[in-house]
Amino acid sequence: MLKNEKILITGPTSQVAFSVTRELAKHNEVHGLARFSNSGDRERLQALGVRCIAADMIRDDLTQVPEDFTYVLNFAVLKSESFDDDLAANAEGLGRLMYRCRKAKAFLHVSSSGVYEYAGQRPLKETDPLAENHRVILPTYSIAKIAAEVMARFASQQWQIPTTIARFNVTYGDNGGWPSLHLDWLLAGQPIPLHPERPNTFSPIHEDDYIALIPRLLEVATVPATLTNLGGEPLSIEAWCAYLGELIGVKPQFVSTDRVLRSLVLDLTRMHQLVGQTRVDWHDGFRRMVQVRHPEVALQG
């Protein structure tokens, strides 16, 4: 648990970062950086005691950002499908942010396992080849994420900022995520799209687990940057939808399409060595997700 620290979190209103922001704000002075084009997002954070900083990662020089943060957590990501804008925000903007916050004890850059080249069911190591994994659904995403990692590595050495780059896999929990979208489709009677190359396997991680691992991710930050995967044990969409269906009394229907992500399984050896293992059993995590997000549903089984 981090306590009495001055922490900057970028992208604090996102599905992944909001849960982290909420927890860290209980014991720390937390500042949230975003565009805040939606006033409701600002009010939601301020209700938690978060101090909001309005900034555009594409255009602003970020001089409005204080220089005395002890820790910086970069969850911000732009997915506009414009290569110019997404590279400017996710890579160039990250460079300006790291220079501005170069006095920090540690910097956590949240990347994605979407940077890896497709390898079927083989667990991917941090040293495996990179590629446009997500191009089929998000044309700019993988390239922008790879560019951001390069910038984080450069800035870490250029300004001697202890940095960790964490490649997150599928995230889920009370605040949503891809499995939550599947839950909504099941409740609406809609089929779940799957890639024909089955099973569709990933390494989902519950929000309680990645929140618990944040302090350790900061602790292992180094110059040059530490790189690690972040995820849970392998689990297929077919399996988690079957379980969700049991909980809500709906038999999942699937439809095959090549316009979805293919399997992306992580090798967690380095993660376990550096920061430890996850603790939330996926059955418990999914059950709680249903209870929190759809309290009107009477759980079965």
Would you give an account of this structure?
By secondary structure, the chain is α/β, with parallel strands linked by helices. A seven-stranded parallel β-sheet has the order 3-2-1-4-5-6-12, with helices on both faces. Strand 5, helix 4 and strand 6 form a beta-alpha-beta unit. Helix 3 runs parallel beside helix 4, helix 5 packs across helix 7 and helix 7 packs across helix 9. The longest helix has 18 residues. The model has no long low-confidence stretch (mean pLDDT 98).
Index terms:
Rossmann fold, 3-stranded mixed sheet, 18% strand, UDP-galactose 4-epimerase, domain 1, 301 residues, single chain, alpha/beta
Number of helices: 9
Distance between the termini: 35 Å
CATH architecture of the largest domain: 3-Layer(aba) Sandwich
Number of domains: 2
CATH class of the largest domain: Alpha Beta
Instruction: Return residue spans where pLDDT drops below 50 for at least 5 consecutive residues.
Output: none
Question: How many beta-strand elements?
Answer: 14
> Looking at CATH, which topology of the largest domain would you report?
Rossmann fold
Helix content: 25-40%
> What's the arrangement of strands in the largest beta sheet?
3-2-1-4-5-6-12
Morphology: globular
**How many strands, what sense, and barrel or not for the largest sheet?**
7 strands, parallel
The class by helix and strand makeup works out as alpha/beta
